[in-house]
Amino acid sequence: DPHGKFSVDPQFGIIRTKKQLDHETQSAVVLTIQSQLGNSPVYSSTQVNISVIDINDNPPVFLTKSDKVTISHTQPPGTAVYIAHAEDKDSGLNGAIKYSIASKESNAFSIDPSLGVVNLTRTVFADKQQEYTLHIAAEDCGSPPLTSLLMLTAINLTDRRLDSLAVKIIILDINDNSPNFTSSSLSYVMEDVEVGFLVHHIIAKDPDEGRNGQVTYHILSGNENKAFVLDKITGLLTTAQFLDREIQEHYSLTVMALDDGSPALSATQILTIIVLDVNDEIPTFTKQLYETAVRENQDPGEFVIKVEAVDRDTGLNSLLWYKILPGIGYEKFKMNSSSGELITTASLDREAQEVFSVKGNSVKYLPSRSSTAQLSLTVLDENDHSPLFAKTRYQISVTEDLEEGSAILDLCASDEDDGLNGEVMYSLIDSTFGAFAIDSVTGSVVTTKALDRETKSQYTFRVVASDCSTHLPRSTTVMTVLIQDINDNVPEFEQSYYKASVWEGQSPKMDIIQVFATDLDSGLNGETEYSILSGNENAAFLIDSARGILATNTSLDHENTSSYRETASSHHLVLLASDCGAPSLNSTATVLITVLDVNDNAPVFSSPEYHVHIKESIPIGSHVTEVSANDCDADTNSEITYAIISGNDGGHFRLDGKTGSVDLMKMLDYEDTMKFTLIIQAT
To answer: Residues of the signal sequence (predicted)?
Structure first.
C-alpha cells in the first residue's frame, strides 16, 4: 500500500479505507497483513486480496467534440463514411458503449450501435442539401447510463452549378501508419463470470483514413483452450467458456490490430488477463486418514499430530479453520484452529481406551465450505500396571501317585499393559523341597519328582508374577498343594513274631495280648483290621478286629494243648492285618501262645496195685520193686514225691521218695509174716 489508501486496526484487524479509491487507476490491491503477539519476535502474515469494484463514474469520451467528413453522390447506399469512436475508462458493462444518432437533419445516414460506423442510407444529390450536421451520442451500459455527444458535419461535394470553376486538390492517403494500441495491456476478471461476459475492450488507433485506418482485431496466441472470443470489429473481448482460477490464474493473449490497407499493417500487444479468485473451492485434507501414536500418562498439552488441508482458492478465500467433530473420547483432545495441531487435554490411559477415532474438520467461510478427515490415534503403552493373579491364594489336591512332570495347575496372572510390558514371567520364591517347578512363561506348575504323602502331605509356597519392569511391585499368590493318599503302604506289625502265655482254666474272653500294625496311609487306606488267618483250631481264640486284642474264646487246658502255631501241626496262630483301601493291602505276624500250667491234676500210679513175690531169704538191701506215678501237670506241678503211709510198721522196707524204688531193710520171715501190704502215696 505505497499510497497509504488503507489502514488496519492493530487490535481487531479491521481493514478500512483512508483515501478515495479509483477502479480505473487500480482495480486490485494485494495487502500483506502481519500479526504479532505482544513484543514476541514470532509473527505470522497473510495476504488480503482487495478487488476495487467499478462504478459507472466515467462517461464515454470522444477524442474530439466535432468532426467533418465529405460525401459524394457517387457513393452508393451502405457506404461507411465515418467511424465514431469514444472511450470509457469504466470496465464491464459500465465501459461498454452504444452509438446512436441523437438528432437527424436527414434520413440519409445510419450508425452501427456497437461499432460506431456511420453509413449512407441513400444517394445524396447536390440539389438536395450541401451539408448535413449529425449529433452522434455515445452511451455506456451502466446504471444510470452516461452519455457524450459528437457533432459530425457531412459536406456534400457534388457540384450543383457549372458557372464557376472550383479546383479541389485531394491528397490521397496511403497506408503508412500502423495501428497503435491505446487500451491497457492488463485486465482483471472474476472467475465466476458467465459465458459472454465482457472482459476487456481492446482499442487500437490508426491515423490513416478510409480502409487504411479501419482496424480489425485478432488473437494470435494464448487462447489455445478457446477461453475467450474477440470481436474483430469492435475489439470487445468476452468469455467463451467458464473460467477457473484454480486451473489457470492468468492468460497472456497476443492480440494483433490489423488495418485494411494494402499492404496491411499491424501491431501486437501482450494482453495479460488476471483471473480473480472467488470462494468456489472446497478445502481438502492432504490425507483422508491420519494415523499416529501418542504415549499414555503424559501431561495434558502433549503434541499428537498436525493435520493439513489445502484450498486452491487464494487470499481470504483460502483461509482455513480447523476443529475436531464431536465423538467418543474427542473431549480429550484439542485442535489449534489455525495451525491444525492436535494436542491432548487430559492424560491418556491405554488400558481404558487404546484407540481413538477422531474426525477433523477444515472450514472456511463466506460461503461456508468444509471437509473432514479421519484421525486414528493409538495410545502407546507404558509399563504402569503390575501383573495380578486372579486370587491371592490357591489350594489344590493331587494324588501322590502322579508321575514326575505332571501339570497340576495352570496359574495365570493378567497384566493390562501391552507387548513386552504385559508379558508375565512366573517364578517360585519358596522351597518346594524339589517337588515342584513352574514354567516361567505359561505359569504351569508341574511335579519334578514322585510325591509321597507319607513323607510330606502338604506343600505351601509362594508364586511370583512379574513383568519386565524393574520398579513396579510384583504380584504374589500363595499356593497350597494337598497330597491325597493312595493305598500304597502295607500295614506293618510292630513284630513279625509274638510270644504270649495264658493260664489254663481261665474263663473265656480273657485278653492274652494286643498286637499293633501301623499303616502310613490315611483315611480308609490307613485303617487296619485284624483277623486270625490260621492256627486257630476249634476257634479257641478270637481277636478284636479294630484294636488287635487277642483273647481266649474258650477255657484252655494245658494238658490237652500246649501250643498253637501257624498250622494245625505246629499250633501257631497267624494273624492278618489288612487295611481298608481298594485294593486292600495286608501283612501277617505269627503269635506263639503258651498255655501255662495250673496244678489241677493228681499224680496217677501206673498201676493201682503192685504184686511182688520175694523169697524170705533175700538179703537186706535187695531191691524189691519200683512204683511209678505220672502227673499231667507240668514243671514243678508234675514233680512227684513217694512215701509209704501204711503197712511198714516193722520197717522192713525203704521207699526212695524220688524214684519210687522199694528196697528191703530187714530180713523177712515167712513164718512170721507171709504178706505185706504197703500203702504208698505219690505226692
So the answer is: none
Report the run of H or E that residue 633 belongs to, with start and end. none
Q: Which ranges of the chain have pLDDT less than 70?
A: 38-43, 104-105, 125-129, 157-172, 364-367, 470, 472, 559-571
**DSSP 8-class letter at 535:** -
Residues 572-610, buried b or exposed e (16+ Cβ, 10 A)?
bbbbbbbbbbeeebbbbbbbbbebebbeebebebeeeeb
At 166 the pLDDT is 35
CA distance 24 to 58: 9
Same structural domain for residues 503 and 582? yes
Strands in 60-116 per DSSP E: 61-62, 66-71, 80-83, 86-87, 97-103, 109-111
Q: What is the pLDDT of residue 158?
A: 57
Please check whether residues 613 and 548 belong to one and the same domain.
no
Cis peptide before 367 (omega within 30 of 0): yes
Structural domain harbouring 302: 284-380
Pairing mode, if any, of strands 355-364 and 563-564? Answer: unpaired
**What residues form DSSP beta bridges with 147?**
139
User: What does the pLDDT read at residue 44?
Assistant: 73
What CA–CA distance (Å, rounded) separates 597 from 634? 6
Q: Are residues 497 and 587 in the same domain?
A: yes
